[in-house]
Amino acid sequence: ALGGLWFWLYTADIQVMTFSPIIVLLTAIHFHYSAFFIPLFYGFLGRQRTKETALYKAAGWVILLSPVMIAVGISFSRLFDTFSVILYVMTLYIYGILCMKTRFRSTLAKGLVVFSSLVLMGTIVLSLLYSAGMLMRVTYISMDQMIWFHGSINAFLVILPGLIGWLIEGPKDQLKQKNFPISKVYGRFQLISFQEESVHNHEKLGLVDSLDELNGTTFSADRVSPVIRRFYEDPMAFTLKAAVNFHWWVRPFVFLLQPLFKKIGQLYLGLSRHPYEMQGRLTRFQHPKEERENVRAWIRQNVKGEQVFFALYALHYDAAAGYMNIALPLPYSQLTAILKPFNEKEDFLLKSACPKGSTGDEGLYLHTPFITMKLPMEESFHMKPETDQSLTAVHQMKLFGIPFLTIHYHIDSESHHVSQ
């Protein structure tokens, strides 16, 4: 994207600060090579290697950050530019050495990749000489020479053979594929709801048939407070009061999206932080595109009778744990939360992010007809008993580790009344 922007600035003949047109063009080339092809090559090398070492990781971060560091140096500080180029040279030499030491299935592929890395070792040193010359106001490499090797030589002797070599080798990704059931029920740009079957209207129904179904290596239902167990096995016997708090940095976006949330009847939680009662209905759910078993739909409304939340609850298991598998239909997609249970004294915890090294299914996933991707988001529920008839719960969501939504629930069975 940055390379395309700078190339557009060059072709449109737009003045950028005090840069000459040729510097703008060289910057476009710089971003296409250093910020696009080289990270791809380095990622292919990582797939090819049997072990990911600390040296490989550290050099990878430098390769990712150096293009921006060099661009900042060119714009504002020649000294910082030279420092960034020196750091970049070191990491590209690490790349070349690792290419030589790594095993390839194809001798031709390895030859092309190693040849590409060797030429790169040479051209990057010339770039260092140019940068050092600019710092000390001495011409080691002229602009014409810079254009020649930074353009033609890198294109035909670095990128082209490297690309052909990696395409021949075709290193496979080492990502562990998740294989858990996922709902295929999507919403539309209209109220997301369902048709209730009268036969189930008065059936006692829980989010789970029994909390024991979640037992595993990290969780035992016997340790959980009885009131929490009763809530999960019969939530309609309780009233919920929710105090919703969208954090300050996300409130403008939520404000703009409120009309959409209201229209689809999903995540329409409101911006007021005052507690309000959430009424609801829970029913069994069947749909031709619902591949999970024993699914329950929980629809919640605010005091005005407006639908605020619609979720499809199910369970799934692996060898070590049972998981809450919760789907939230969205327009032409759905958000799936895979939550793993934990004990903390009598408390009950559900988390989408687990300790480092965990290989479970937990996480938040966006599913569309074309792709399922894990999101950089975390979700957690922490339920605490208050009395033998009531409990509290804290629901928190984070984006890139930064909290953006916290909901405090007060859940009570003593004052329960039948929702209309």
Quick overview:
This protein has helices at residues 2-11, 21-48, 54-76, 78-101, 107-136, 143-169, 226-233, 251-264; strands at residues 239-246, 276-284, 296-301, 307-317, 322-330, 333-344, 347-351, 363-367, 372-374, 377-385, 390-399, 402-412. By secondary structure, it is α+β, with helices and mostly antiparallel strands.
Separation of the first and last Cα atoms: 53 Å
Number of strands: 12
Main beta sheet, described?
A: 10 strands, antiparallel, barrel
Give the rounded overall mean pLDDT: 87
- The whole-angstrom Rg is 28 Å
| SSE order, one letter for each helix or strand | HHHHHHHEHEEEEEEEEEEE
Large-scale geometry: elongated
Give an overview in words.
The chain is α+β, with helices and mostly antiparallel strands. The chain has two domains: 2-169, no CATH class; 198-412. 39% of the residues lie in helices and 23% in strands. The chain is built from eight helices and twelve strands. It has a ten-stranded antiparallel beta barrel. Helix 2 packs antiparallel against helix 3. The longest helix has 30 residues, at 107-136. The chain is elongated, with a radius of gyration of 28 Å. The model is unreliable at 196-200 (pLDDT under 50).
Write the layout of secondary structure elements.
Blueprint: H1 2-11, H2 21-48, H3 54-76, H4 78-101, H5 107-136, H6 143-169, H7 226-233, E1 239-246, H8 251-264, E2 276-284, E3 296-301, E4 307-317, E5 322-330, E6 333-344, E7 347-351, E8 363-367, E9 372-374, E10 377-385, E11 390-399, E12 402-412
Antiparallel strand pairs: 1-2, 1-12, 2-3, 3-4, 4-5, 5-6, 6-7, 6-8, 7-10, 8-9, 10-11, 11-12
Helix pairs in contact: 1-2, 2-3, 2-6, 3-4, 4-5, 5-6
